[in-house]
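Minutes, project huddle
Topic: does the predicted pose make sense with flavin-adenine dinucleotide bound?
PN asked that the exact inputs be recorded in the minutes so nobody has to dig through chat later. Recorded below.
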Amino acid sequence: MTIATELPAEQSPEPGTRKATPAEAPITMLNPDFPFSYDHYLAHPDGLAVVPPELYGTEVAVIGAGLSGLVTAYELMKLGLRPVVYEADQIGGRLRTASFPSAPGVVADLGGMRFPVSGKAFYHYVDLLGLDTQDFPNPLAPATSSTVIELAGKKHYAATSADLPDFFHEVAAAWKAAVNDGAAFQEMQDAIRARDTARIKELWNELLPLMDEQTFYGFIAASNAFKEAGFAHREAFGQVGFGTGGWDTDFPNSILEILRVVYTDADDQHRLISGGAQRLPEALWHHAPSGITHWPEGTSLASLHSGSPRGAVDRIQRGSNGDLMVRERWGRETGYPAVVTTCQSWLLSTRIHTEESLFPAELWTAIERSHYMQSSKTFVMVDRPFWKDIDPETGREVLSMTLTDRLNRATYLLDDGPDKPAVILLSYTWNDDALKWLSLTAEERVKLMLHSLEQIYPGVDIASHIVGQPITVSWEADPNFMGAFKANLPGHYRYQQRLFTHFKQDKLPDSQRGIFLAGDDVSFTAGWAEGAVTTGLNAVWGVVNHLGGSPVPGNPGPGELLDELGPISLD
Ligand SMILES: Cc1cc2nc3c(=O)[nH]c(=O)nc-3n(C[C@H](O)[C@H](O)[C@H](O)COP(=O)(O)OP(=O)(O)OC[C@H]3O[C@@H](n4cnc5c(N)ncnc54)[C@H](O)[C@@H]3O)c2cc1C
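Predicted holo structure (tokens), as shared on screen:
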């Protein structure tokens, strides 16, 4: 049902066979707020920046060993600086993979699990580290042999979207019309394919003031296409609308957030990392890049830290000598000329005593007004991928990837071959749907989820296939995260603009320089690992510039192009 798959991957030209025309060039996550080609920046043979030799070995604190912190630390290390990484819990952050204890090779991705191929900066690191990826079994995706959509007790089985009743095609057509009529969807995608940054900015800057105060729901309800179609279409759209489905818990969020996703195909052509998403941050931690500045061959983040990051940070303040003093929860305090924070930014006031004068008051407002989504996932391991068994009566698979308006909302089926244990992600939910699970134990969650599935698949004994203990997570309950990922509400554009552009500090007083924010919640695409990577690269630029380094000739960085391509101010 996605509107973004009109040119399926298999129709794209084979790499190397002929030059892609602009119409066939891939969509990248070239964010319209700042359409800077981070993938080109990363691919430049002379690197990202130059640091003068007298600065080699200078320590820079990086708070958080999630993807953003590790990209930041890895790139600082390559430039000859000495990143000092602090982590409150696990390396990987929200790229967290859990193993089922009785079969450690069988894994569950508790946070990020499916990564759009348009996220070119993210895949720069996946490819660099030689990680294998596979198509993710999203609803109606080529890797998904069947999908069931169950709404108001009515069940629809589909091998491809063509099998669905006309009603769902009308819903898809209404969304396509709504974004084309109201948000220049096709023109924006053409400009993104062509990397025509002037055109992207022209289209987006015109839309921003019109859309900033509009909710996602308000946008579709006001569109002619959905007005004509009626409420049932809006309701079904909320369940199966595009890409991964289940977007109605995003209805109160700003429509700008949704447009950024669909323009850049972030909802489409997802791949998973074989063995689990956490392999990416772990590989970054252990990787020893060759030929790097200053450090001997074989140096990695792990070797610079003797195997383990420092502990949780509980205070950041300016020291009497001008350094930024970072104190750990157990008391050790170290001074740095620059600090990068990559934890969710709410934590800077709730869990880390961050001296107020380090940030302008308007930035604190932006941090405090941030809106985070809740999210819950519950996984069980099963003895084998029994869902591929064919029901002799119907000729269909006994269980399918499922979208439903029941408690579960979305059930995913994940396997690694026929004769091995497999995994069911019984339920993946956001916001209100996630809050319904928050106070329940894992066992209570699983019982209710199985009950829902029994109503959809009567006679299929899922429970008899379950082995081992369930694995469940509610990100909002974890004090090191306090939420799953940010999602801006209407009117929040100004806050996001302040957070995103803070890495360029030339207009700040000296007393507020040297501390940089990164992480997906600082990006314009929170909830996508691409934003964790790209804001990490912004922070690297900020640190190098702050310490006295310079850009590589011919490879301008995000700070050089921010004024030209960056987010505009609204009033
Ligand atoms: C449920 C869920 C589903 C998602 N699905 C997808 C998806 O399918 N595709 C996708 O691209 N992205 C997805 N994401 C988003 C993706 O996981 C994030 O964008 C990415 O992992 C964020 O990385 P980060 O480094 O910015 O932040 P984090 O991963 O949050 O890293 C910050 C780190 O800071 C640490 N920290 C916190 N407090 C302190 C302290 N006081 N001292 C030291 N360290 C501290 C934390 O422990 C953490 O390790 C999902 C996220 C969630 C939660």
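Observations noted during the meeting:
- Residues 1-20 have pLDDT under 50 and may be disordered.
- The chain is about 30% helix and 20% strand.
No decisions taken; revisit at the next huddle.
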